# Entry
Amino acid sequence: MTGTIRINRAPVLTLWAAIVAERFGFDRDAALTLGRAVSSLNATRKPASRKDADATMVAVGGDRLATTRQSEPVALLGFFVPVLMTADGWRAVSDGQPISPQAVETHLRRKFGHRLGDARAAMTGLATSMPVEELTRRAFGLYEQFRPNPPAGTRRLGVPGDLDLARLQALTHIPSRSDQEVP
# Structure
């Protein structure tokens, strides 16, 4: 998978956060809503206490997911995302209402176009290339390494950049610092 996709950062972060959430044990619909919430939170403020949020994600995902209380936020990519158990399962909440996974999927299809499958595959490859604990620590930093950057001299907001799929694939082969340490 090669090439670039001309796209804004928000849908890229939405898709990446959704894929990371899936890797942590959320079903696709819940993950899509979490991805949208992370992207919205990123647009409005910087992660507060990213270290604490990243450290709790493993505990919130997977086996503990079934026992999470409705008012307990989920930590994902350094953000605490409010969640709600609905008749259809876990959903991230925005303005007190559950986010629609169908609306998120429609938004991603519109933004990525026919390249959504390529982007999803590349990001999934990256997310599955490392243990969950490592992904927990590195997820937002990885996004910062592959996110599309607007052309030099333009303002950042609302200006599309190039998402390089080869860069995503290359990141799957970069060992973490702990892999580089000699015992």
